[in-house]
Amino acid sequence: MSVNIATILDNIAAPVVAATPIKDHTGKIIDFDIIYTNEEVKIASGYAMQNKPRWSDFAMNITSDIPWFKMALDAIAGRFHDDVRYFSPSTQAWYKIEMKWLPEDKYIIITFINVTSEREYYRKLKKTLITDPMTGFSNRTGFADSFAITLETARFKKYYAALLVIDIDNLQNINDSLGSQAGDKVILDVAEVLKQFQREYIQIFRYGDDEFAVIITNFESQDSLVNFIDCIYDAFQLKQISVSGGISMFPTNTEQKDEMIRFADMAVHYAKKNGKNSFIYFEPEMQRVFIQHLTIQTRMNAALLESNFTQYYQPQFDIQTGQLRGFEALIRWNDDELGNISPSVFIPLAEETGLIVPIGRWVLYTAINTLKTWQAKYNFRGIISVNVSPIQLLGDGFIEELLDMIETFKVDPSLLEIEITEGVMINNMGDAIEKLRQIKALGCRVSLDDFGTGYSSLSYLQMLPLNTLKIDKAFINDITSEDGVQATITRSIIDMVEKMGLETIAEGVENNEQLNMLNQFRCNFVQGFLRGKPMPYNLCDAYLAGDVNALLKN
């Protein structure tokens, strides 16, 4: 290329690049040599192309968001990309990228056309569309544009940036119980708290119905970021507004905007799962757990469709006579790829995704079918207990499904016990009590499982239509300890429940010392490895047929 032409190009306002293909031994284009860049492109790229690098260097030095190499190959093939744009942190300008192949000279020419004025015009036109009318903040669309520019600028200037996603706790419940006006007031209160933090380097957005996003840049250190975010959290606490937040950092966690958003959302999810009303910083372990859970969720869908779950049954015994009371139905899952997956892992995931409803339906159906079979074969008069998730219990149609199964299999409903946990009381006390009363009206028994691990309110026990209370293993573990604390608590619970006319079942009984103490306390029934482990159907069937050796014990 002659010097005169280069001089002319250097005085053109538009950045221009010229490159030639590099081919391997097969003739395939693997890269490009940049043979010329004018002064404007050096300025627009922040002088990242000063030494005329190869194309692969050029792409990484400028931005990885544009498919430079693919665009060049497409241009050579006669295919063109209409609207690819690049924001230059150096010039703070937007450029439209155009590529043209000169087959005779074997050059590909890249031209950066400044479209900042055009973009600014459309930005102003678009402002009314990206502004949330309730709060005055930009909405999710405005966030996408601003966040991309923020990260490009932070990458160029080599400073930190952070994303804080804030989710209002329980907004749906507020709308349902108090009305949408009350919910709107909470949203406006959150906006007022955030407005006091708005600065040149602090951008705030209405990210969703119950979510806000805060982009924070140009802070000196991670400690200063933590201090600032603590101030935001404290401001919400001062106003008694419960919010959950998740924070991701650039470049500490990632340099990709999509990952920044995903990581902040993951952290919000962890905050929600761990009691809400807290801000949590993203950690790499969260992503590992997320991927693991996603894999399990995918496999769980397949397991449900292919009927790969198994029902086990753990026996319960009368503590004084040793007679069999019945069995608790327990779901088990052995996946071909993942192996044995604990219910403590997949049940919470099933509840999050809604799969707990069809899974719970399968568990109940299988248990009632088993009860019918044992009634016919052995005149079995024991009780089958089935755990029912709060989501399943409070969902539409549960009572109708239960009645339909009872009538289909023609089982005695008094031998079917529905187990619930204290979690069913969260925000749904009235609905839960009504559903439990309907279950008892069908003739079924109702048991409260894991008592003492949740809200542990003795007062609501009188409100619930219960037959049985199960004392959690956490109490039984230390019941024989020398300080006597757990023993005193357990005895008090049994005494109180006995006066209420309820039966008690102690879970997790693993040794004779625990058994003897529970017998002294007049506990009615025991369940645990000492008397019997969870067993597959065939061993339970053999045990009911008279084979006492079929029982699995410690």
TrEMBL record:
Positions of the GGDEF domain: 159-284
Signal peptide: none
InterPro entries: Cyclic-di-GMP_PDE-like (IPR050706), EAL_dom (IPR001633), EAL_sf (IPR035919), GGDEF_dom (IPR000160), Nucleotide_cyclase (IPR029787), Rev_trsase/Diguanyl_cyclase (IPR043128)
A molecular-function term among this protein's GO annotations: cyclic-guanylate-specific phosphodiesterase activity
The EAL domain, residue ranges: 293-548
Protein name as catalogued: Diguanylate cyclase (GGDEF) domain-containing protein
Organism of provenance: Treponema bryantii
